[in-house]
Amino acid sequence: MPQLDPEQRARLQAEVAAPYRGLRRTFYGVFAASGAIGAFIFLLKAIAGESLATTLPNLALQIGVVALMIGLLRLEQPKS
């Protein structure tokens, strides 16, 4: 059986310790961007004078999504 070089072995061990980390981080980034776009749109609707009874809860939800995704991204940071 051929020996693995140390760099490849370390990369494989990191993948075993946290499988699909790159995929999860990609999804977090995409969902955060989606929430930011939604928040921007609802902010513009609020500025334009649409009903605040429906606009503000939706804006708060989008901001919450962005905050959640940022929190999850921070949890994914490697411990140093």
From TrEMBL:
Key words, A-Z: Membrane, Transmembrane, Transmembrane helix
InterPro entries linked to this entry: LPA1-like
Pfam families with a match to the protein in the record: DUF3493
Transmembrane segments: 27-47, 59-75
Top-level taxon of the source organism: Bacteria
Name the UniProt record assigns to this protein: DUF3493 domain-containing protein
Organism: Synechococcus elongatus PCC 11802
Organism lineage: Bacteria, Bacillati, Cyanobacteriota, Cyanophyceae, Synechococcales
